[in-house]
Amino acid sequence: MITFGNVTIKGDVVLSPMAGISDSPYRQITRRFGSAFAYTEFVSTEQLLLGNVKSLDMFRYLETERPIFFQIFGSDLETVVNASEIAASKKPDVIDLNMGCSVAKVSHHGSGAGLLRNVRLAGAMIEGIRKKTGLPVTAKIRLGWDSQSLNYLETVKVLEGAGVSAISVHGRTKAMAYSGSADWNAIGEIKSKATVPIFGNGDVATFQEALEKKKKFGVDLVLIGRKAIGNPWIFSDVKKENKTWLEIKDVILEHLDLMLNFYPSEDDYALILFRKHFIRYIENTGFPDESKRELLQITNVNQFKDRLESVSMDSRFLETSEINNENINCETFVSLV
Ligand SMILES: Cc1cc2nc3c(=O)[nH]c(=O)nc-3n(C[C@H](O)[C@H](O)[C@H](O)COP(=O)(O)O)c2cc1C
Question: At what angle do helices 245-262 and 269-282 cross, to 10 degrees?
Fold first, then answer.
């Protein structure tokens, strides 16, 4: 159990923040399946200050998602601190500062992983948000900008000095984006020196692996990102591979309904948004290609549900091959308004 401020976190594994994925519907599902808390997608502080409705909307959540961490990004101290007050008015438990986004249009302007090149500024942001909102503030970092500038120990020290409550570490540099593999030894090194809880992140593929990483590297919690898409079962020791198609289909329909409620529109916009989840739910289940192609063309939700029901599947998985993560990354879904 981890506690800071009024926040108590129970559990070992959490859904990593993911733009286009970790919205309220998927957070509700993953919390129910065992994710230790809920992180929102990252939200632009500039857009919050401009009153952008879409950005504010990304902070809608249900009480069942608590503890809820609102993740924000920005490069300007005053903007970040003032926007944090707007975020705080929606009563999150924690505000998290994104210091890890590698996408050029974020990091090359000094936000996200760009803050790794100016950790004093990041420290001032943490302190400013804390004082402005009275909320616990956490940060999500990478190991450094590139392999020539691995400043993770300094970053952690500065953030601790600024009063950060916990730090999540994705064990890659900004330059690596999603290539190579996460350096868990560096994450372990951070944990051995840090005075605040450290959450480890990078390339974790199963619940079991998360527990092993937690034990081996001493981290307080493990974040799972890409492998959790279409697989909320990953947050407990219940394996998706052992689920029947009927059980998987129930979760698909539940998720779709939550999205329809959350994004109401006459043209079933939620269904379009749901496609990226759907592809991952059916991956490696032996779902027929032709039905998949048809379902991905359908724009009416009732037709989608009818067509899905008509697919005949063996109740057990046919394939157990590894889910391929290579074509998915932060840039896939990031659409900054
Ligand atoms: C589609 C996608 C969107 C992401 N969006 C965010 C984000 O909004 N905020 C953030 O801190 N990290 C974001 N990330 C990074 C993940 O939280 C995580 O750090 C990274 O994917 C490594 O973990 P994994 O190997 O378990 O996927 C995103 C990653 C992906 C794949």
Answer: 160
